[in-house]
Amino acid sequence: MSLLDILTKDDIAVPLLSRDKNGAIKELIKLLKNSGKIADEESVYDAIMTREDKGSTGLEKGIAVPHAKTAAVNKIAAAIGISPDGIEFGSIDGNPSKLIFLIIAPPAQSGAHIALLSEIARLTRYQTLCDELVEAKSAENVLAILHGEE
Asked: How many CB atoms lie within 10 A of CB 44?
C-alpha cells in the first residue's frame, strides 16, 4: 500500500490554518472526518496525542509524522498539511515543521502502518521534493508533485 493509494485531495490542507501542533493535528483529523475516513475525531486525536506523549514525531528538515494505531478506525488513513511558515513540533533539529504527514491505522494493520512511515521517510529524503511540496498552492498541486508530474 502506497501513500498515493489512500490519499485524496480532500486529505490535504494547503496551507494549514493552524499555527500550533495540537491545532494542526486536529485540523488534519478533521479532514479525515470530513472525507468519511474516520468517524470519531476525539478517539483518533487521543491516540495521536498518546503517541506524541511518548516522544515527538517532529523529525528534522521541516518534517513531522504524527501517527498512531487505534481501534477507532477500520482502515489506514493519511492526511498531509503544508505550513509554509512552519509549526513548532518538538523536532529533532529544533526547526519548525512545514510538512506534516498524519497517519492513523487500526491495530491489525501494523505492517501497512510501518510501510507508510517508511515510504514517507524515503520521500522526504529528497530536499527538492520537500521544497516543492512546501511551495504547493493547492491539494491538487501536492498530489501532482507526489505523482512526479510537476
From this structure: 25
